[in-house]
Amino acid sequence: MPIRRFHIGEEYELFEVFHSAVHLVASRDYTPEQIDAWAPAGLDMELWARKIRDIKPFVAEVDGKVVGYADLQPTGYIDHFFVSGYHQDQGIGRLLMSTLLSQATTLGLRELTSDVSRTAQPFFEKFGFCIIEERAPKVRGVVVPNAFMRKLLP
Ligand SMILES: CC(C)(COP(=O)(O)OP(=O)(O)OC[C@H]1O[C@@H](n2cnc3c(N)ncnc32)[C@H](O)[C@@H]1OP(=O)(O)O)[C@@H](O)C(=O)NCCC(=O)NCCS
After folding, report:
1. What is d(CA 112, CA 70) in angstroms, rounded to the nearest whole number?
2. Which atom of ligand 1 sits closest to the CA of residue 120?
3. DSSP state, 91?
4. CATH no., domain 3-109
5. Ligand 1, residues at Cβ distance < 6 Å
């Protein structure tokens, strides 16, 4: 499965991945109110596109369709990490994480960090991340708890 950099023009495809990941998967661990605040259907697509171009994620593709994406900032911070709700448990998250880890090595980073949803915490733990702090950020006025996690790199 190819993992490559995001291309301009794919922003809406990434929104669909994000939206299905939150509504079909993270909805196990959050209330409907929290899910709607986190991934509203009527999200401003201009702002969304700007955000995606800003974080410059890697994307995973199956049959020419984007099924997952994740970014790595120069500081080692992972801002977005989502696999489509229709493509879970197929090793796509593992491939994306391996890409971020080898990119981190290339960049000489000492640590990776992320604010991780309840849903993704066991996945991040599997890859050696530890919880540093439980947090309760507000998203569009609604508290959506997550945890700040860190993985130290050799
Ligand atoms: C977390 C997420 C990215 C995992 O993606 P995925 O493609 O389903 O994961 P993979 O199939 O690559 O799984 C890799 C390994 O992690 C394990 N794993 C994945 N999700 C897990 C979970 N929630 N709990 C425990 N283990 C999990 C898998 O069993 C697999 O283990 P194995 O290799 O020993 O079989 C995906 O479930 C997701 O997008 N979740 C919802 C959105 C979200 O909360 N994103 C994070 C925002 S910070």
Report:
1. 13
2. 1
3. S
4. 3.40.630.30
5. 21-22, 25-26, 81-83, 88-94, 116-117, 119-120, 122-123, 126
